[in-house]
Amino acid sequence: MSGMDGLAIEKKPPIVTRFTSVILFGSTIIALVGGLSLLWPGTIFDMLWKLNPAAQTFFVRGGRLFGLLFLCLGIMSSFAGVGLLKGKSWAWWLTLLGLVVVGTVNLLRFLTGDPGELFGTPFTLGLLWLHVQPSVRKFFLSS
Fold this sequence. Notes:
Number of strands: 0
């Protein structure tokens, strides 16, 4: 047993709820909207890129392939978020994988001078740090 299978809902650390909410809603929405805007440019979804025009320049070069990758990230984030809400250990591992990949890309873009990553990099690395905190790990990985 892991997560909510092994712990009463009342014993779920508050950080788990906050963290899960950010993963489920934030990353899913951004990835889906980003993917749709790359697959169908010129739509209302393009407004997202006003937050980070340098990222738009980078991702538009990848075209539809990057759009599909963003959509896959959004779908993965949705599954992971639902799994996290249910306290599933596989969701903890999937989220860890996603945060490491996104954090690495953000860090590389930050180190190459992308000013838009001034927010994205610390935010993603902060989520990664929260994800591996002992109370979060214990909740999802306890047997």
